[in-house]
Amino acid sequence: MVYYKKRKTDRPPRGKVNENEMRAAVNAVLNGGTVYRVSKERGINLMTLKRYVRKCQINPSTVCKPNFITIQIFNNEEETSLSDYLLRASKLHYGLSTKTTLAYEFAMTLSKRISKSWKSLQIAGKQWLHGFMLRRNELSLRNPEATSMAPATAFNRYTVGEFFTNLKDVRLRHKFQPQNIYNVDETGLTTVQKPVKVIAEKGDKQVGRITSAERGTLVTVCCAVNAIGNSIPPFFIFPRVHFKGSMLNGGPPGCVGVANPSSWMNCAMFFEWMKHFIQNVKCSPANPVLLILDNHESHVSIVCLDLAKKNGITMLSFPPHCSHKLQPLDRSVYGPLKRYYNTACDDWVVSNPRPMTIYDIAAVVRKAYAQAFTLSNISAGFAVAGIEPFNPNVFSDNEFLASYVTDRPEPITANPFPGVIDPVSVIVHAPAFNQSLMSSLSSGPACSVLPIQPISDPVSQLSGVSINISHQVSLEKISESWIKEVH
């Protein structure tokens, strides 16, 4: 088993001396030189040189090279396939840890010669794993970000394609220019920042950084940007019943604030933001704008839609759980804003020996806002989302792999019931379907009645990913038996 030990000297390792160099050193000793002097001059291990000299004295035709072979469990092709599997599982958001039994199971399947520790623990050894990671430069041990099932599976090619189709239609219909395409979103800022990295003594077990409190107070900030890199002043929602003008002291120029006990966005708050947006953008039916936003319930109230229609605002929503990829503000603006805000809070704590309150947030945001809402950051967000310049193919296949686990084939568009306008009503009332449904449910495992579509197994190549497909077999039986009896 390969063991990578950190060397403490500059002496060449054993077994790494060239055969010709070793033969020349042996001949130098046989011609009258001392072993110690030759080994020191040529940088060869003393005992290794002695051993080869002794062998050549007995048999002059001795080959002066090591006769041992390092045992490698998997060859290069097998390690490549193992590496590809790990990378694919990671892109599917089902990455494997170092405690996985994948290598052990792979070796047992290929009937490889493995050590006793592998068999007793049923897992690959640490030394093999260390060597494997050194040999495969494309692999690294990463700390994954927790990703819920909803955004991972909702971001699929069909949903994204529908969004870009709607975006293309609305842009062609109203002929929106880049300066008339806006994106709006909210984010939260607290009075307790996340400290940035500091310089401290090496080896310290704990390094502290002063914050205002253990838990902070949340203030919501609503921002809007357009595709050419401009932004409108931020809109603050403070956790109070009544708003006071002192809450905005030192804030960004033109900013507006309101009060809401929960500090969250709701229909009334978004209606106030819409009036703030119209006042700054100067939009009208003669100068329409496109407002792209997520489909939160506070954004689609009747009063907001009426106000938007009256002032020439066309609202286009992102698909559910897709804003992490499609929203420009999330892609390239809010990340820098949070980092600059944390740095500004650290500086504020140093200059003000008192806890930070919501009355100080606007002044701190002013510095971070100017650094984050730059022309390059905003334009990059629209570009990577494929909105401006318009690029429906901006996302690669690897970015859709997470939804591959739950993908289904496209539904059949052909009408299986000629002469029937609504095949759904026939399905519901067909006696053959009801009878086959009850028989399949009574004979097979319990399942939920879902749309009758055959479900393929998209992860047949990733047997390590555990997915419950007990309902799949039942649904396929239902579909097959129903089709046979109808025809």
Automatic annotation (TrEMBL):
Pfam families named among the record's database cross-references: DDE_1
Record domain DDE-1: where: 218-382
Coiled-coil ranges from the UniProt annotation: none
InterPro entries from the UniProt entry: CenT-Element_Derived, DDE_SF_endonuclease_dom, RNaseH_sf
Domain of life: Eukaryota
Gene3D superfamilies: Ribonuclease H-like superfamily/Ribonuclease H
Signal sequence region: none
PANTHER family in alphabetical order: TRANSPOSON, ZINC FINGER PHD-TYPE DOMAIN-CONTAINING PROTEIN
Record's protein name: Tigger transposable element-derived protein 2-like
Natural source organism: Hydra vulgaris
UniProt lineage: Eukaryota, Metazoa, Cnidaria, Hydrozoa, Hydroidolina
Gene label: LOC136087034
